[in-house]
From TrEMBL:
Keywords: Carboxypeptidase, Cell membrane, Cell shape, Cell wall biogenesis/degradation, Glycosyltransferase, Hydrolase, Membrane, Multifunctional enzyme, Peptidoglycan synthesis, Protease, Transferase, Transmembrane, Transmembrane helix. GO terms for molecular function: penicillin binding; peptidoglycan glycosyltransferase activity; serine-type D-Ala-D-Ala carboxypeptidase activity. This is Monofunctional biosynthetic peptidoglycan transglycosylase. Residues 667-682 have a biased composition (Basic and acidic residues). InterPro entries: Beta-lactam/transpept-like, Glyco_trans_51, Glycosyltr_51/Transpeptidase, Lysozyme-like_dom_sf, PBP_transglycosylase, PCN-bd_Tpept. One of its GO terms (biological process) is proteolysis. Residues 667-692 are annotated as: Disordered. In the C-terminal section; belongs to the transpeptidase family. Its main location: membrane. It catalyses: [GlcNAc-(1->4)-Mur2Ac(oyl-L-Ala-gamma-D-Glu-L-Lys-D-Ala-D-Ala)](n)-di-trans,octa-cis-undecaprenyl diphosphate + beta-D-GlcNAc-(1->4)-Mur2Ac(oyl-L-Ala-gamma-D-Glu-L-Lys-D-Ala-D-Ala)-di-trans,octa-cis-undecaprenyl diphosphate = [GlcNAc-(1->4)-Mur2Ac(oyl-L-Ala-gamma-D-Glu-L-Lys-D-Ala-D-Ala)](n+1)-di-trans,octa-cis-undecaprenyl diphosphate + di-trans,octa-cis-undecaprenyl diphosphate + H(+); Preferential cleavage: (Ac)2-L-Lys-D-Ala-|-D-Ala. Also transpeptidation of peptidyl-alanyl moieties that are N-acyl substituents of D-alanine. It comes from the Bacteria.
Amino acid sequence: MEIMTNQRFRNAGKYLRALVICSLIGLALMVCLLIGIFIYAKILGPPPLAVPQSTLYMASDESIIGESHTGEKRYWADITDISPDLIHATIAIEDQSFYEHHGFDYKRIAGALLADLKAMAKVQGASTISQQYAKNLFLDQDKTWTRKIKEAFYTLRIEMSYTKEQILEGYLNTIYYGNRAYGAQAASQFYFGKDAADLTLAESAMLAGIPKGPSAYSPLASFEKAKQRQKLILTSMVGNQYITKKEMANAFNEELTFVGEHQYYVNTVAPYFQDAVKAVLKSQLNLDERMIELGGLRVYTTLDRQKQEIAEKTIEEVMKEDTSMQVGLVSMNPKNGHVEAMVGGTDYEESSFNRALQAIRQPGSTMKPLLYYAAIKQGFTPASTVMSKPTTFRFDDGQSTYAPHNYNNKYADGDITMAQALALSDNIYAVKTHLFLGEETLVKTAKDFGIQSKMAKVPSLALGTSGLRVTELANAYSMLANGGKRTDPVFITRVEDYKGDVLYEAKGSHEQVLDEDTAFVVTEMMTGIFDQTLNGYASVTGSTISNQLTRPYAAKSGSTETDSWMAGFSPQLVTAVWTGYDDNQTIDLVKEKAFAKEIWGNYMEDAHQDLPIRQFTPTKNTIGVYVEPSTGKLATENCPVKRFTYFIKGTEPTEYCSLHLPEYQAEEKQKEKEPAPKEKKPWYKKILPWTS
């Protein structure tokens, strides 16, 4: 019997040793597994914390003008921009030991298991804020062991890689508060119509109670249940010494006002401009569609809301007639190229096609300032004269001819100066000058002015028969306005990601491309379209709106059978306007032909209301003298009309006008009585033998 007992003890000891050894091996394996998990988590590094968020578009004053539409409202707020009361309320109800644990609260886990066993059901949760954040970021809502294991691993990675403040910030920006509001900022705006930073203690405690069950604890769903949970949270905040009992009582009794509306920023503000901004994000910043729509970007644009409103109102008032004509308007700051207003059509809802940016239309005579810039560079001056009369141009092959004509077939039937030719928009002067310079000269000059649309080497290019965009013309005129410096239309000044890190920032260009003296002389000539002293065989082309203008402007109108243009600038603002039909229908009605000028004049006056009146400043190498407009010679006291005109130094006229001297007039009367002498060929016919 004793032998059998000893045998049993020996067997028991053997099993016990085996159990201990197996336990030690299992423990060692568990330790190795845990070490392996930690090493693997370390190798993987920090998990990305970005979540889908609404991208916001801001005007130049940083007011919001639009946002991407994903059906959800998500706005990232820095932890410093969230009310401390909401932070404390969230910790008090969700994870009181948040700052003590390393992702898992083992006491809560044990307590939850006991409670579930007693109830034989899932009655209590034990997830920490870190675990909930991991679930919100990376996982679906399935209640499986696989999902739980993944959640634990993500939680471990988050805790190893980020500070408690970063985790708390991320959690508060991703938690769901009901009504499609994700994050504290979106929820604060929806429920209380304010930023998360401005929440009161009462509002914070109410908001912190919603994530437990948005359909049950939202004050808009059940105010009674929401108040009960608010009280529970306030009590917990007292227990955690975040607030006093008096503060708790005051907060619980505070009467709250609920908004219950999202602050939608739909594309009602400058929709064509917003489309242009999105196009820039894709084409120039190389951002994909998902990043633009869901990246939580903050896109700071150049839009001036006041100027945009003026542009839209002006177009509506001028084109209120029953017309199917369309419009394109671009208004830029010539100093930096910032596009401050843009209209791409009369009704965005009917047509989102952006005629200011996408349509290529013939610019007509608005090309002439570029032509005369090239001419002055090659020795012409504002006083250079050319014969203006019906002309047929014949070319080398002996077959090709070109016979341009002036508006209403009116001509000077004599010499006309460049300054007056520009003011009256004389086509004969322009074509003769263009052919004298060589057809390739204007093509090259257009490129120097930043025009990228293809320009054809043809005689009619001087009259704007090669199409371009409204943005291109506005940009070209900006280079005249700023003294010849390179500009490109700028729509975006800065782009930030959801954390506020700068992804892109515009850098201004100060490259001198044009000759500043020539640019100023052309600018001064362009003021002539509003100056009645340049009236000749016709009135200056800006005469119909000149009476409403209250400051100096340089401008040029342009028209073809299907297009009507007006473009010009002050020292502070450049604006180009196009009107016409999408189907290239001819513009026949007089009132429709005037739309572009009326829009430009009304807009420029209203847009400048708060700006000081500034003159165009002469450059150092230019000089101004009084000139008799029809001859281009220095004016005398006998000249009834004279105009102060600028020239590059050394090219100003030196001969005085003799038209109005008594002896000249007597001589002219005598000539009228004598037979006309045989006509001599003028200089331009000797140089341009193919004219007749």
